[in-house]
Amino acid sequence: MFQSTVLNSLINGLDPIHGKSVQLRPGQVFQGTITHLYPGQLAQLKLGPLTLTAKLEAQLEKGNKYFFQVLKGDGLPQLKVLQSQPFSSMDRGSSSPLQSLMQQLAIPPGGEAEVILQRYIKESVPFLKNDIREAVMLMEQSRMPLEDTLKTILQIHSKGLPKTVDVFNSIATLQSSTSIGEGIGQLLKGINDYGLHQSFPKLVEVLRAYEQPISQNALLNNGQPPYSFLKQIISQLGLQYEFNLNKSNDIQQLNQSTQDLKPLLMSFLENVPERLVSVREQAEFLLHRLTAYQLLSSDSHDLLHRTLVQIPVYFDQKYRDVTIQWEGKQQADGTISEEHCRILFYLNMTHLKDVAVDLQIQNRIVSIKIYNENPKPHLIINSLFPSIKEKLEEMDYQLSTINWYHPNEGNRKLIKSEGSYGSQGISYQGVDIRI
């Protein structure tokens, strides 16, 4: 429960704007509840957790649910009602609201189309008729269980990503419990089993670098400022490959000189024989997982920039992924401010199990919140505080507080948004260390 809540919060975004706004496009259909009626055919509607004001084409009843379709127009959204009676007053002998909607949209009843339509309505997701057609195509090609398939499609839809097979395969890897680190280990084993290590020496070298214990891994022990450190990780994973490709005047030279993981995986798949199914699947998993984080990191709003990435590390004789989400203010020159930002880390540790760290920076003053279901380890926190403070001061940051929180099992609520970078998750109670 804790793990899924934290990871969903990371994937869905830190800033409160993501959960408090909706962009309606002409032709979209959604189910809404009339909450207030105003003169001039204006009404206030509830769409899931959101409230919006729109102009209606018909007189409706307050408190009832209807299906609406968005019409073309400027200013307030203009809505067409797709059924003449509210849900509550429809006769038992008449067709259901869902069947009536499918008839109006010329969608055949039953099958995948009805399943995805029901899920869109349940999740209060506005959709176009074409969204249903594209989702059905993905459902027909998916090899995952139905629920995982629907979750993946909804995630693609909510992020406004293209509903293509490549995008689906990438986002679908987030449903897998296999980490990037475990995927690297499996691919290395497959390369060795098939005797391919001499054919792909650069890929093997990069993969083996992630096998180094965390204490010996230069990538994770370089003392760089936070965003510079994250940019280097993103580059070494190959998450900027397409960007570099667009800027390069010599694509062949770029591909020959690269030491980044993603382009090396792409080259591997282009050259390894099709008959080596298992090792190809291992490389495809890693490639799709990296692409998924590229797709999810492309999200931004106004001056907020968001980056989501997993770093494979090896410690305590086991591969682990550290999931990091960075959200900060984009400056006029396009760079990201390191003075005002928020960083969330998630990892699973041997003894503490699931740990989430929420690091907020305002005017280079750092506050750290640690979320974990175990009792607070006072001795460890107290012993680490001076060294953390010293390391931050070396990078011109000042440590303000370290807070340890644990879930309140009797009252699970949403984490309250704080400052400019709000998040949603579980409510926690804890004690503070303050300077």
Keywords:
disordered C terminus, 8-stranded mixed β-sheet, alpha+beta, 5-stranded mixed barrel, 435 residues, 38% helix, OB fold (Dihydrolipoamide Acetyltransferase, E2P), Flagellar hook-length control protein FliK
CATH superfamily label of one domain: Nucleic acid-binding proteins
Shape, principal axes of CA atoms: globular
Given helix and strand content, the structural type is alpha+beta
CATH names the topology of one domain as OB fold (Dihydrolipoamide Acetyltransferase, E2P)
Instruction: State the separation between the terminal residues, measured CA to CA.
Output: 33 Å
Biggest sheet character: 8 strands, mixed
Highest-level CATH class of one domain:
Mainly Beta
What CATH architecture of one domain do you see?
A: Beta Barrel
Helix content: 25-40%
Number of helices: 15
Which regions have little confidence, pLDDT < 50, spanning 5+ residues? 14-19, 89-94, 409-435
Strand order of the largest sheet: 6-7-8-9-10-11-12-13
Count the strands? 13
Q: What number is the mean pLDDT?
A: 80
- Rg measurement, Å: 25 Å
